[in-house]
What we know:
There is one protein chain. The protein has about 140 residues and is an alpha+beta fold. The protein has a single domain (about 1-140), classed as Archease domain (Archease, Possible Chaperone, Chain: A, domain 1, 3-Layer(bab) Sandwich), CATH 3.55.10.10. Helices cover about 25% and strands about 45% of the residues. It has helices at about 20-35, 55-75; strands at about 1-5, 10-20, 45-55, 75-90, 90-105, 115-120, 125-130, 130-140. The strands form 2 sheets. Strands 1, 2, 6, 7 and 8 form a 5-stranded antiparallel sheet that branches. It has a 3-stranded antiparallel sheet with strand order 3-5-4, with helices on one face. The radius of gyration is 14 Å and the shape is globular. The two termini are about 25 Å apart.
Amino acid sequence: MTYEILDHTADAGVRGIGATLEEAFAEAARGTFALMADLDSVRPEGEVAVEAEADTPEGLLVAWLGELLRERDVRGMLFSRFEVHIVGRDGAWRLSGRAWGERIDPRRHRLGVEVKAATYAGVRVERTGDGWIAQCVVDL
Length: 140
């Protein structure tokens, strides 16, 4: 599993890569939070449950990342570890996930840019020859 940060003119793209769809979604979340802080400095001390629904896998990715960003804002937390379970087909996709992290501490965390939202720009969720990718552009 891994993630990549993609070049984009005004914002940033994130691409999660995994052997399964769930791993790709988890890695897209890691990529999103890696833009905001050095993940090695974020301890997985607290756990947050996250749920999302959408009509398409692409919509589900945007909803998943949006829910994680909402949890960041509401709880004042950064997340570094993610677990995802996805069920879906024919216009009904549902995700239940968990994120682990801790409250933001600017003295200890090496902070990066603020991610405001996940967008549908460049959104792509698809099976590859050896796994899955899940990508979109995030608004900075």
